[in-house]
Amino acid sequence: MKPTDLTLAGARDALAKKELSARELAEAHVAAVEAARPLNAFIVETPEQALEMAAASDARIARGEAGPLEGIPLAIKDLYCTRGIQTTAASRILEGFTPTYESTVTGQLWRDGAVILGKANLDEFAMGSSNMTSAFGPVENPWKRQGDNRKLVPGGSSGGSAAAVAARCALGATGTDTGGSIRQPASLTGIVGLKPTYGRCSRWGVVAFASSLDHPGPFGRTVRDTAILLRSMAGYDPKDSTSVDTPVPDYEAALGGGLKGLRIGVPKEYRVDGMPEAIDRIWQQGIDWLKAAGCEIVEISLPHTKYALPAYYVIAPAEASSNLARYDGVRYGLREGGDLPLAEMYEATRGAGFGEEVKRRVLIGTYVLSAGYYDAYYNKARKVRTLIANDFKAAYESVDAILTPTAPSAAFAIGEKMDDPVAMYLNDVFTVPANLAGLPAISLPGGLSADGLPLGLQVIGRAFDEETVLKVAGALEEAAGFDAEPHFLAAR
Fold first, then answer.
1. pTM of structure
2. What are the two backbone dihedrals, phi and then psi, of residue 233, each rounded to the nearest 5 degrees?
3. Check: CATH 3.90.1300.10 for 3-261+399-491?
């Protein structure tokens, strides 16, 4: 087996048994990153750092001092600040910005022995569901429809991270999930993506989009791989005021064992009009698998679900307009019109530095926060958010986890929905509610569509109960036996 065909857990075990070295593992993945350049999954490649870190890992392994992720090569979404490595958030306004500090999450990954392969491409400032809004060009999904050679989107915003894992360029990756930006690309690329509870992973050093909705989390090829990564990524951080001081369990230990007696909720509101038959079929298949595992299936109601997207697209742009006010051409990043009066320099810098989707969301956010509209839009959306959170709270009085589809469709062609922002926003219809409520949720591949594209199942759990989410997802993964590979691997 090639090193790039190993799962993260398999590579960890092979390194521990000294069946291969960290350098060999890094070299194989550096070569895979180079071979996958047509996918445009990376903004910055870091082969020299990867080999240096791998050499240090080999030395620690030889001394018997291996960390939990020793020698494991990862892709890092280019929203995480990395000391000495350019961090752009896929925006021209930050091109050339090299942080002098490390985000808390990536610092913990390096502490545990992980190796950086590069900074993964994304939608600009994480705003998008397709990875089409990056200033550095779109990412291509490694999957293709049967009999159709059109390039497909990998989902967004963490599309580069998802594509890198699906194309066997990295054993795992970091992403961020504001409205579905880990789970939706995981679904579209046939891998596993986990959004932890809000406050479980530190946001310090992660470029902010919408501060009350941003969730750092992991991608892996298996549920076990995401469990291993989450243990290193999670933990209390006093530098993040929203970080929660609660113990970090051994998530991998939660996997396995029976599900008998667990009650799984199926929300009737997620059966939306016009949902493709394939999505409904995969959802029903997931329900049947859990029944066979001994779970009790309970129909539940989350009555305010229909208001989740409208509330999200008020709250997220409002927070974005506030967070992005700092990009003014004064302290760092792009500066246009340096000889102009201050206000005109601001306008020139932001006009040249931000892409169309970012400008759209900043304008919406500024509007809903403006005098006369704050109560009508922003405050009303916050109240709706509370109602959505209360729906989940009521549901968890009678169920242990909730099963839904991850996305309303399989991957679509690059450029297919770009002229209709509302159609693009609807990609988040099944994922946004968990962000508004701050709950842990995972996407795993449940099967293939009629034209051979992956479709995801989503498990949503109680706050800080990632263990049950992972346990249920692990059982679904075993039942699905998903082993299909993307077209890119066969063609390589």
1. 0.96
2. -75, -30
3. yes
